[in-house]
């Protein structure tokens, strides 16, 4: 692996990465959370878009691996003064950094930077395209729930039925999961209002997943996991998104719907809009994996940084 | 008086024959003095009339870092063009006689090719009130084509009045058909691929719906409507139906839409960002067939130079457009001639005779006929070459064909009898002694 730009990977690669994340996960139980693996390496978190959760998670992951982690925010930097994406990337690379973690509002920006700067690049979310580490942490948390934390290693998600619910059209989390989970053997159904389901999902051929507009139909099938996406109705130009009331009626995991799902794991990438995507009872239920997903995020990002940058992983330049 | 005799050229791709140039005109080879004539051995070459581009962005005034009229006509000549129509989206916009006369004058000074300024339909391309079309038509630049290209004349009432004005001036409105409400933030073809790449799609209906509306308006106004850069199968069908109804509608297709598909966008390389966007395979097929059967009348380049910084950025942030003057003939040879859809006489029709007729540019009515102005191109159809940025004669290199092999090579060009290209190089102006 030279970069992590997409969650599109083969089964063996995905399982190996999740297993490496299991190794990293053990650090959670230690008093001293520090591994020397990336000592002397410098990672830049280049965030053109605001993000507290993802940036902190990458920062902790890098620091626990002993890397020097520098946060560069797009706002207030040269990038906001008209400097091109290419010049920003080349400038940071010229300072001798070893790897760059990029969050951008523009789909494809990490792929272009990877071409331009010749250093490992991790996509920390690009526009409405992908968020591969989110998909990896979702797979990690789900795998632990399905097989048990001590028996997850080496396993995939064969036959596990996952429904992803919400604004599919604008969700990079949905895209990355729709690529990664099927590679691990899971069956993915995308669920959302018709105006928020993209063509790819509607025609079903590109991403190889099923699309449904009725959440109740999907609930009747008793999926193994229900992943609720963050919905930002105010962002969807007003005209095309349903109102909050309409959304809740059709696509929210309400208490009433929760009661019909006794065995289903409840997932959410956060931050949650309680009352909109899911009820508080759903968010706080034993079936909820929300906080496990956050913890998994650090382990998965440690695994990714280690794979790309550790010298024994071919990550030296 | 210099007389030039071209021997062995396949005239319009037909039998080898001779062409003679004297005093800027094509003359009867039987009447010239062969001993004093300059001889050009054109064996194996195809002779075409000088090409006419109804849709070029020369960027001057205002965008000189990307192209100037002087550099743009070099690209035009190198591509086999002897006449280009310069789009109005300059800074300032070509909505006053002062601007179109400046463009006209710079074109005359640059020689190499005729530059015909296109006038704006609306003031500042803002789509709010009509430009002074009559004054532009009556200026020294004698504007015959009006377009807000880059923007759609979206307001139906404005479009109606523009068509009515144009009819009275024997001018044509060249519409950039794009419903703005359906294409907010659109950067590529709306398709499963766009959804996969996370890029905002540009639906086919946004083009076809405007063309359908404009065809009805043109019919009611008794006006001529020209559709810029048709890009989809649906639009082809609308144009076909409008023609069947007897509406005075003409349409153009770009070389890139004849050859390339949206798959190229997968790289996120902004060289492939263009408006309208590269479409799907089914659209490419429909466009080729429509050009062959006459539903689409002409090929126009939509040559759109951009400085490197406008393209070296994220796809959504980059400028729309591709340069095309120097690769147009090769792209047409590959997509239309080598596929058997069009012969060379057909190429002359869609790249010279008909665009000149739509733009009311005289001298192209009878291609390569004795007595016509000597606008002549000699192309070697057997040559193949890889397109390289360093070889392009224009100022910008934002070509989708860099590193790509295209057939055909423009070797020699005469514009009104003046040699503008010799052995694929620009013939520089003779300095006055």
TrEMBL record, chain A:
Gene3D superfamilies: Aspartate/ornithine carbamoyltransferase. One of its GO terms (molecular function) is aspartate carbamoyltransferase activity. Residues 158-307 form the Aspartate/ornithine carbamoyltransferase Asp/Orn-binding domain. SUPFAM superfamilies: Aspartate/ornithine carbamoyltransferase. Pfam families: OTCace, OTCace_N. It is an enzyme of class 2 (transferase). InterPro entries: Asp/Orn_carbamoyltranf_P-bd, Asp/Orn_carbamoylTrfase, Asp/Orn_carbamoylTrfase_sf, Asp_carbamoyltransf, Asp_carbamoyltransf_Asp/Orn-bd. Catalyzes the condensation of carbamoyl phosphate and aspartate to form carbamoyl aspartate and inorganic phosphate, the committed step in the de novo pyrimidine nucleotide biosynthesis pathway. Belongs to the aspartate/ornithine carbamoyltransferase superfamily. ATCase family. This is Aspartate carbamoyltransferase. It comes from Agrococcus baldri.
TrEMBL record, chain B:
One of its GO terms (cellular component) is cytoplasm. InterPro entries: DHOase (IPR004722), DHOase/Allantoinase_Hydrolase (IPR050138), DHOase_cat (IPR024403), Dihydroorotase_CS (IPR002195), Metal-dep_hydrolase_composite (IPR011059), Metal_Hydrolase (IPR032466). It comes from the Bacteria. Its cofactor is Zn(2+). Its EC number is 3.5.2.3. The active site is at residue 302. GO terms for biological process: 'de novo' UMP biosynthetic process; purine nucleobase catabolic process. Substrate binds at residues 57-59, 89, 275, 306, 320-321. Zn(2+) 2 binds at residues 149, 176, 229. It is an enzyme of class 3 (hydrolase). It catalyses: (S)-dihydroorotate + H2O = N-carbamoyl-L-aspartate + H(+). Pfam families: DHOase (PF12890). Binds 2 Zn(2+) ions per subunit. Keywords: Hydrolase, Metal-binding, Pyrimidine biosynthesis, Zinc. Pathway: Pyrimidine metabolism; UMP biosynthesis via de novo pathway; (S)-dihydroorotate from bicarbonate: step 3/3. Zn(2+) 1 binds at residues 55, 57, 149, 302. Gene3D superfamilies: Metal-dependent hydrolases, Urease, subunit C, domain 1. One of its GO terms (molecular function) is zinc ion binding. Residues 46-234 form the Dihydroorotase catalytic domain. Belongs to the metallo-dependent hydrolases superfamily. DHOase family. Class I DHOase subfamily. Catalyzes the reversible cyclization of carbamoyl aspartate to dihydroorotate. This is Dihydroorotase. It comes from Agrococcus baldri. The gene is pyrC.
């Amino acid at each position: 692996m030279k970069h992590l730009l997409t969650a599109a990977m083969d089964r063996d690669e995905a399982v190996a990465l999740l297993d490496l994340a299991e190794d990293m996960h053990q650090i959670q139980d230690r008093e001293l959370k520090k591994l020397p693996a990336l000592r002397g390496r410098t990672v830049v978190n280049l965030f053109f878009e605001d993000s507290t959760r993802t940036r902190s998670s990458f920062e902790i992951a890098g620091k626990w691996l002993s890397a020097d982690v520098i946060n560069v925010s797009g706002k207030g930097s040269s990038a906001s003064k008209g400097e091109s994406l290419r010049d920003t990337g080349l400038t940071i690379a010229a300072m001798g950094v070893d790897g760059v973690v990029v969050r951008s509002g523009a789909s494809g920006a990490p792929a272009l930077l990877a071409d331009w700067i010749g250093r490992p690049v991790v996509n920390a979310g690009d526009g409405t395209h992908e968020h591969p580490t989110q998909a990896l942490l979702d797979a990690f948390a789900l795998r632990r729930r399905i097989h048990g934390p001590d028996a997850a290693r080496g396993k995939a998600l064969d036959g596990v039925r996952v429904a992803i619910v919400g604004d599919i059209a604008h969700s990079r989390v949905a895209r990355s999961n729709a690529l990664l989970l099927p590679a691990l053997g899971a069956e993915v159904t995308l669920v959302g209002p018709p105006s928020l389901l993209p063509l790819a999902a509607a025609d079903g051929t590109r991403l190889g997943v099923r699309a449904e507009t009725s959440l109740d139909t999907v609930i009747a099938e008793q999926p193994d996991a229900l992943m609720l996406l963050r919905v930002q109705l105010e962002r969807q130009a007003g005209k095309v998104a349903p109102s909050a009331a309409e959304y809740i009626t059709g696509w929210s995991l309400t208490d009433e719907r929760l009661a019909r799902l006794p065995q289903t794991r409840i997932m959410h990438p956060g931050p949650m809009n309680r009352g909109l995507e899911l009820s508080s009872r759903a968010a706080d239920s034993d079936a909820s994996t929300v906080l496990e997903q956050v913890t998994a995020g650090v382990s998965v990002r440690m695994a990714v940084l280690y794979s790309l940058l550790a010298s024994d992983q071919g990550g030296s330049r | 008086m210099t007389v030039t005799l071209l021997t062995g050229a396949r005239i319009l791709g037909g039998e080898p024959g001779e062409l003679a140039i004297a005093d800027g005109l094509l003359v009867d080879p039987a009447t010239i003095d062969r001993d004093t004539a300059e001889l050009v051995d054109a064996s194996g070459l195809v002779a075409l009339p000088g090409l006419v581009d109804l849709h070029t962005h020369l960027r001057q005034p205002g965008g000189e870092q990307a192209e100037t009229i002087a550099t743009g006509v070099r690209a035009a000549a190198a591509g086999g063009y002897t006449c280009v129509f310069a789009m109005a989206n300059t800074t300032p916009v070509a909505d006053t006689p002062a601007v179109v006369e400046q463009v006209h004058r710079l074109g005359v000074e640059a020689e190499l090719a005729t530059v015909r300024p296109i006038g704006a339909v609306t003031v500042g391309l803002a789509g709010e009130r009509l430009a002074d079309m009559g004054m532009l038509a009556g200026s020294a630049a004698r504007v015959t084509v009006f377009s807000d290209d880059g923007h759609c004349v979206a307001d139906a009432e404005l479009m109606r009045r523009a068509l009515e004005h144009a009819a009275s001036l024997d001018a044509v409105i060249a519409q950039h058909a794009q419903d703005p409400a359906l294409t907010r933030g659109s950067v590529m073809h709306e398709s499963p691929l766009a959804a996969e790449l996370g890029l905002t799609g540009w639906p086919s209906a946004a083009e076809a719906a405007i063309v359908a509306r404009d065809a009805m308006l043109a019919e009611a106004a008794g006006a001529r409507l020209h559709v810029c850069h048709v890009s989809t199968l649906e639009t082809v069908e609308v144009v076909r139906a409008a023609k069947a109804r007897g509406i005075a509608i003409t349409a153009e297709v770009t070389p890139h839409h004849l050859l390339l598909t949206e798959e190229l966008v997968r790289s996120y390389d902004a060289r492939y960002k263009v408006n309208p966007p590269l479409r799907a395979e089914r659209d490419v097929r429909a466009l080729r067939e429509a050009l062959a059967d006459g539903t689409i009348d002409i090929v126009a380049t939509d040559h759109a130079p951009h400085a490197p910084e406008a393209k070296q950025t994220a796809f959504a942030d980059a400028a729309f457009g591709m340069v095309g003057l120097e690769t147009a003939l090769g792209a047409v040879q590959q997509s239309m001639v080598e596929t058997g859809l069009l012969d060379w006489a057909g190429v002359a029709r869609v790249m010279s005779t008909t665009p000149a007729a739509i733009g009311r540019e005289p001298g192209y009515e009878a291609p390569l006929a004795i007595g016509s102005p000597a606008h002549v191109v000699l192309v070697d159809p057997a040559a193949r070459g890889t397109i390289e940025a360093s070889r392009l004669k224009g100022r910008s290199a934002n070509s989708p064909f860099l590193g790509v092999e295209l057939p055909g090579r423009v070797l020699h060009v005469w514009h009104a009898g003046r040699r503008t290209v010799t052995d694929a190089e620009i013939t520089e102006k003779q300095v006055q002694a």
